[in-house]
Every structure is written in C-alpha cells, then in structure tokens.
Batch of 2 targets.
Target 1
Amino acid sequence: MAMAVVRPQIVLLGDSITEQSFRRGGWGAALADSYSRKADIVVRGYGGYNTRWALLLLHHLWPIPFAGTAPAAVTIFFGANDAALLGRQSEKQHVPLPEYKHNLRQIVSHFKQMSPSILVLLIAPPPVDEDGREQYAKSLYGDKARKLPERTNEVTGTYARQCVELAQEMQIPCIDVWTVMQQTEGWQKLFLRDGLHLTEEGNAVVHSEVLRALNGAGLAAEEMQLDFPHHSAIDGAHPEKAFQSQGCSSSGNVDAFCPEIASNHI
Amino acid sequence: MAMAVVRPQIVLLGDSITEQSFRRGGWGAALADSYSRKADIVVRGYGGYNTRWALLLLHHLWPIPFAGTAPAAVTIFFGANDAALLGRQSEKQHVPLPEYKHNLRQIVSHFKQMSPSILVLLIAPPPVDEDGREQYAKSLYGDKARKLPERTNEVTGTYARQCVELAQEMQIPCIDVWTVMQQTEGWQKLFLRDGLHLTEEGNAVVHSEVLRALNGAGLAAEEMQLDFPHHSAIDGAHPEKAFQSQGCSSSGNVDAFCPEIASNHI
C-alpha cells in the first residue's frame, strides 16, 4: 500500500453486502468510525461474487508469500450468492453446498497461511425475505419479473449452518447473521430492504456483532492506542513534546511511534 | 501498508471534520462509496489539530523519500482550529493567520515533494454559526459556559480566504466551503450541528464538492477501472476467463491486472 502507517488494517472481504457497507448507515463505515485513529478499515466487497469467484482474486490481492505487513483481521462474508438456486434466474452464482464450505475453508486457510496471527472472522449470510425479493423483482420488471424465487430463506439457512460449522471446526469466531436477525420480530422488512440487502437497521446489527466479535478476540478499539496524541495532551506552547512522549523520535521512524500497536496488532 | 493492491489511494488529511467523516452520512464514507472498487479512501483526521500540529505528524506518516507508492490524491482540510481566537477558551489551538498560510504551503509542498503527480486538494474551513456554538456550550456547561465566543465567522472567513489564495498561488484546486455553505439560506442550522461540525446535509455539501473537484482534476470514478471483473462479465461455466481477460495472468502480479489504473493513478 501507499503509506507508511502505524495503524493495523481490518479487511472486509465479501459480496455486495460488504461492497455497499459504506453507504449511509453502512456497517463498514460505522466500523471505520468505531476504529477511528486506531485501525484502517479496508473494504474489499465484490457485488454478485460467490466463494468460487472470490478464490480467483484472493491470490491477486494477497499473494503468498506476502511481502507487506499482513492485516490484523479480516471478515469473510459470503454465502448470499452461493445459495442462489439452480434453474432459477441467478443460477450463475450458485455454488453447491459442499463446495461452498470447501471454498470458505480455502479462503480462511489462505489468510492463516499469509499470517498465522491474523484474526479471521467468518460471517454467515443474512436471511432471505422471499416476499421482499418478489416485490423487488416486480418493482424492477413488472409482469416480466421472474415467477419463482431465485433464493429461499431455507436454502440460505443451510449455507449459514455450513459457515458456522466450519468456524467451529477451524476454531475461529463466526457471526451467524442468518440466525441472529431472525430472532427479531419483523426482521423481514426491518433488516432487509429488498429481501436480501441490508437496511440501516440491518447494517447496525452487523456492525454491532462485528464489534462484539473483534472485542472478544482481543482487538477492541478502546484498548488500542491512538496513532498520534489526542489534542488534549498537546501543550500549546511546546506541541513537539507530545509527539516525542511515547519513546518516539521525530526521525520518521513510524514503528517507534506506537510500539504497542506495532507489536501487538500489525 | 499491509496489502498488495491495485487501487489508488485518496487520503483525507484534516481535523475533526475529517476524523468524523465516517459517521452516519459523513462525507468520507460517502466518498468511499463513490469510489467503490476504484480507489481506497484513507482517513487521517485528527480532532482538535491545527496546521502547526499537523506538520509534526506529516513526516511520520509520509517520510521523504517515500518508500511506498504515493497516494493518487490528498485532501487537506484545516483552518477551523487555527482560527480559534486568542484570549478565549480554545486559544491553545490558535495559529496566527500568516503562519496558517505558511503551514498549509508546507503541507502541500510536502506532498508535492513526495510525488510530483499527486493531486492535492485544499479545503477551506466551514463557516461558524456563533449562536450555534453558544447554544452548544450552554448545553454542555450551563451557566458555567464561556461568555465570549471562541471562534467567529468573520475571523474564520479570513483563514478561508488565505486558503483560497494559497491554492491560486500554487495552482492547485480548492473548495471554499466557508463561502459555498453561506450561499444557502439557513446554512447555520442546516449545515452545522453545533455551530462548527457538519450535519448530514453539511457532509453532503462537502462530499459533492470534493467529488466535483476530483472529477475536474481527472480522477473521476466513472473513468476508473474496477479492480476485478464486474459479476455480469463473469461466465458461470468458466469464471477464470474473466480474471485473465485484461492482459492479466493469474501469477499474482497485481500491477498487471489493471494496467491503466496502475500507470495513471498510482
């Protein structure tokens, strides 16, 4: 990347639900705010992608051996497209259930191979509101809209369970968005804006669950140092002092600036 | 930075108005969405900072000579704190007007020295709603709130003019947020939530002005390539083809993936 920085990176890898996470009220942007001056949130969301296609770009983005500093954490959020049904409008995106789990395992292994200390967080796909999908298709295509659903909540649930199961097998954290969302009455319209993608409320659920998982895995923003002094710690008459106070020279050696972050999280 | 990426970077350097730009409706998050899959938005906002303090961190973040790939663009958005009045509550942040301009020039020169082709975009501070500031102070401190304003719109305006003037002298683009916002009736409460920081509407003004400036300087998102194929370009039966179609091997050589972006914008 282009800058010498002291901040660790948290990468968001996924499909459109990740790609769109910087829209108004999006979970990615909210995460960037939660980790303000602590970590960089790097969005790598690819609308329409399934795990099979994700595997094709993985080696481009993170070749192994990896020359740079590996991210501190990565969220892997696929399944909504893999679960598209065969013989329906979105069948191009379909990935068979066993292959979905296999691909996810490959993706996780890739990151672990790149950096044994990286925190890998799996996120299972959200539930599907079939009525919402149908209304959305009609709003776009009217009478020409597809008659049969391209996704069902039940099938997507089988993908979510494989994701949860894989996390258990690999002993990594997982957020079961499919189950979590359905625990709230009216989840269909409250959390999903077109039966598949998230409303602001749905984004808030993902944001809060990701925060909780990162906190639980030792990457809480509250425990991370600011990259530079808080303005209240700066002496107006001698501002340079605050910039030297953490054992840091002003020689441009950024690793020395916040040694705790550099050693723990990068 | 930690990843091998093909996306150019757009850095947002500034004070709290930049630091908070990933909150709900924030201009930084909106920019990340506008450049989705085209560029990475890197936020480097430091609440309370003035140009004097910014100079103290510049060499830490972007040492010269710079070892990595320089950002494609940087927005420099200071002045709201430099314009704090002497002898008032926020006087620690005050920077004399001539020094503000001098410091800004140093910051711009630093980036130009790092990379002659970098697009440097100056942003002048927003106007100040003195009544809004007073109400905000009273909401926090009641009768103990400061009696005299710590900033005035008139004084901040003199800083904005120096910023605009410097941009003309250095022949770089500038957004005069101070002037632009005051062209809308009711700007005081419409664009500012506490007399100083931006509402969602205020963020939308900055977002749209930054987009316009980037477009005008040859960095329009519409003209930049996606980092990987759009899902509609992927053949379900032979997905690997789309990942090889731009003269790219699958060898992990990311620079070869999107040669136009690599040569024009990084």
Target 2
Amino acid sequence: MKWSDLDHDSCPVARAMSVVGDRWTLLILREAFLGTRRFDGFQDRLGITRHLLAERLKKLEALGLMHRTPYQERPLRHDYRLTPAGRAFGPVMLMLVDWATENLPSDLPPPVRVVSQADGHEVDPVVVDRATGTPLTYETMRLRRT
Amino acid sequence: MKWSDLDHDSCPVARAMSVVGDRWTLLILREAFLGTRRFDGFQDRLGITRHLLAERLKKLEALGLMHRTPYQERPLRHDYRLTPAGRAFGPVMLMLVDWATENLPSDLPPPVRVVSQADGHEVDPVVVDRATGTPLTYETMRLRRT
C-alpha cells in the first residue's frame, strides 16, 4: 500500500490514526471511560486549555465517538457521553494500556487499574478468536493483503 | 491525572503514544507484521523517504520493538525484525484495525485480512479476561484510579 491510498482512507490503520494519533483525544477518551462527563471535569482532570478541549470534543462528536446532551437549560450546559462506537474503543484502549505497561518500561506504578464490573478482580486482558477461543498472537495469526 | 504526570510517563496511555501517535511508526509495524524485513522493502511498500524511514526504524530500535541483524557483509546490509515486545503489539494492532473497520466508516474494502495461522479462517478478535474468558467491554469492566 502506498501513501496515496492512506489519503483515501482505505486502510483502517490510517483511519484509526484520527483517534490514537492525538494525545488529547486519547486522554479525553480515557477520562470518559473513568466516568467524566462535564466539560469542566475533563478540563480539571487533564489540565487542558478550554480552547483545545472544545476542539477535541467537537472532533470526537464528528467522528461519532461522543455525543452531547443538555443537562441544564439556563445557562445551557451539556454532558459529553460515549456513543456505542466510543464504548467499543474500550477494549482497544485496554489492550494498548496493557501492552505499554508490559513492554515500554516505567519506574512508576500505573495510575489506573482495570477491574471486573462483576466482582472487582483485576483483569488480565487477552485477544482471542471469537469462534474458537484461540489466543491471537504473532505466532497464531497471519496478515494477508486482499 | 495532570499533564505534568504524563511528562513523567507514569501513564501507559502516554507511553503508548510514542508508538501509536506516529503514523509512519504504526505503518512500519504493520509492514513488519506482513513480513517485510529489508529497508528497501519498507520503502517500496510505504512510499516513505529514506531519511524518515531510517529515523523511524532507529526509534523502533530504541523503543526495543525492532532489532537489526546483518544479512550481508560487503556492503554491510541489515534485516529489521520484530523483537518479542514488537510481536506483542500484534494483538493491539489487530484490535485497533478491527475497531476502525467497524466504527470509522469507509466505502473502500480493507486492504488486509487477518487469518488463523492454523487453518486460514478469517478471525474475529475479541478481548477477554484470561482467567474467566469473559469478554471485556465497556459494560463488564471498570477503570479505577490507583
């Protein structure tokens, strides 16, 4: 595949870059997974300027990953919530965080843990094939150009 | 977490940005997963300049995701191969591609498919908890600050 194809977005890696290629976008999603919904909440947590935050939230709306709903009339105020497509990014973020924790060394403990909603045990994520349950690793899968 | 923490790399999301935050780095990894090993092979496939390619390969070596081995003495030539940490990125890339394919619309067919090494069937990746086999989704998991 050539660069020119990327401009036409045939490659999902290239499309994914619109989300993972931007640090603030990824961090806003992380905060949304942690339960943040208000503009001021995102701002406080991330220490981002209002201008940048507004811009990135608009981008996430345009991509269909977050949506705004009014929670107050005067003055008008909005909540920002994950759409189903945004929620579907959760497992991707989980794998990304797990991989970075294991493979990009840091002396500091990770600032978040991922636990099971059901019983609170810390989860150990692994990608498997839905049909067979086989772990999908470099050794068991193969990429093919179509 | 504040921006200042990110500079100290305590957040694995921030560390992951060194890989997923750069389009060429991600595309070089994709080519490596497709079997490319030679400098010229990466260049032909990606249409990247020699300068940028050399720089990104050095970065991938510095991160410990790829390593160089000589395959020829005169003139000296190298192969670029994935390290175990680089190979471990395979499942992350797979989830990223699967998510983008499902959630960021494109009119064009995806240029790569992922198949099982064992029998060649197209795989359907899902993240599960290793201990219980439960799919890890927005609904079943929870992020906690430590």
